[in-house]
Automatic annotation (TrEMBL), chain A:
Keywords attached to this entry: Membrane, Transmembrane, Transmembrane helix
Keyword presence, Transmembrane helix: yes
Protein's UniProt name: Cytochrome C oxidase assembly protein
Lineage summary: Bacteria, Pseudomonadati, Pseudomonadota, Alphaproteobacteria, Rhodobacterales
Transmembrane segments: 20-40
Source organism, top-level taxon: Bacteria
UniProtKB/TrEMBL annotation, chain B:
Official protein name in the record: Protoheme IX farnesyltransferase
Pfam annotation, one family: UbiA
Lineage: Bacteria, Pseudomonadati, Pseudomonadota, Alphaproteobacteria, Rhodobacterales
Organism: Paramylibacter ulvae
Gene3D superfamilies for the chain: UbiA prenyltransferase
Annotated EC: 2.5.1.141
Amino acid sequence: MTIRKDHEVHKRRGKTNMTLGIVLGAFVLLVFAITISKMVGEAQRVQSENATTQAE
Amino acid sequence: MTNQSYDAEFGDFFALLKPRVMSLVVFTAAVGLLVAPVSMNPVLAFSAVLFIALGAGASGALNMWWDADIDQIMKRTQGRPIPSGRVTPSNALIMGLWLSVLAVGMLGLTSNWVAAGLLAFTIFFYAVVYSMWLKRSTPQNIVIGGAAGAFPPMVGWAAATGGVSVESVLMFSLIFMWTPPHFWSLALFMNHDYSAAGVPMMTVTHGKPYTRKQILIYTILLAPVTLALAFTSIGGPVYFAAAVILSVGFLRGAWGLFQRSEDVATSDDYRAERGVFKFSLLYLFTLFFALLIEAALRGLNLTWGAWPVWI
């Protein structure tokens, strides 16, 4: 049973809001992926630096 | 359409980003990034290209906000979101400004601030220097405004390397010198629109025969830039072969346009002019694709050691 009726504006803009929601969600995922990539890259850099120092 | 009840849809806002221009930016920026001698994490490379494209889109929205009055007059642009009433001018302005900030900030965080600075300058150049200042005041608008379109590969290169080099300057110069003959050949058969809107296109202010001469001059100046790239660290025999063939083709086309009179051009409905315009698109696409092939060959260690790298 519906408790609340959607306002007319929500229906009218439903599709646009849904698309915008998906785009924002994708942006969040992208920022997360960037963060992981940068952390992995940084870890690799530190590791190779340590390896060079030890070799010396 | 002054329909009060119309709500802008997502697609209307997307159209403000000039998706067709953006696809060219994606391509040239991606090439600039991929041919750089630095291997990049694929997620970071993808993000960098995405943010460069977003910045270009933002400048497109700012351009459409500023140019709404002339877009309304020209047939080619009447259907754009603002002149057709689907998006309000202030919404376009707000979107353009915030997407610019987002694109520059995110590119700085993902890649580096040299690339972000170049992107910010590109947006400024297109929205302020070209749209607001030059487009309506001088027939050189296309020449100087072309710089905005020439920046993306340089930004891509900077995203990968963190700097500017002779290779990225030459990629910039290639698009910069290519833009005038590309646009003027279009203007030769789109003249009516520009004169009605009062945009000082060279065809309107100096006439078509003069424009034909300028197309030829720029095509001649373009050839050495195109060939020079072959002898940098990102060039090679594949690119060189493409550069020679395409340069000859472009020069022949420009020479053909130079020799045509307006009577002949009108009688066959600007067939040669349309041909040169299409060829110019093929020219740019193929050259950048050839740079990509050279990069792939280097990646596979299939380089020819004797190839001269002079620059």
